[in-house]
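Re: that chain you flagged

S.,

Sorry for the slow reply, it's been a week of failed gels. I finally had a moment to sit down with the sequence you sent. For the record, here it is as I used it:
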Amino acid sequence: MNASSILFHQSALGDLLTDPRDKKSLLSITCMRKLVKICREIKYERYYHYSSKYTDKGVKMEEDAITLYSRVRGIFLKKNAERLQNEWFDGEPDIILPDETIDVKCSWSLDTFPSPVIDKVSSDYKYQGYGYMDLTGVKKHTVAYCLVNSPGQQIIR
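Prediction finished late last night. Pasting the structure tokens below so you have them in one place:
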């Protein structure tokens, strides 16, 4: 790939992201950055996987969180392993019930555990839930914040 093809790629993307009549952006800067990232991933086949100790805990402790949430709800809940997709997006809800999807979130610590009195569900999680409801056809989505112990290897360092 040479410099002129990169410039063309960026120019074409810039035209896509702006209104040709007044050259003002049609999308938020966050949305534009995400689109640029997606274009680069596809064009250059370079994919970035975000990871941190916080996300690692969530992945490692997901089963414990599902067990905890099952006990709180008083029903048996099991991890969904099927990835769903339609023509617009794909996703894998943590739990799928006949009338609800559930996404389990593991907080890092008591300090990061949201308070229902002041904290609202993040817009990212809200839109993720809309996607899951569309994929499954249910009318209810729950974000279940859970506080479970960290794995031993994260505590002992």
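What I noticed first: Residues 29-44 form the longest helix (16 residues).

Talk soon,
D.
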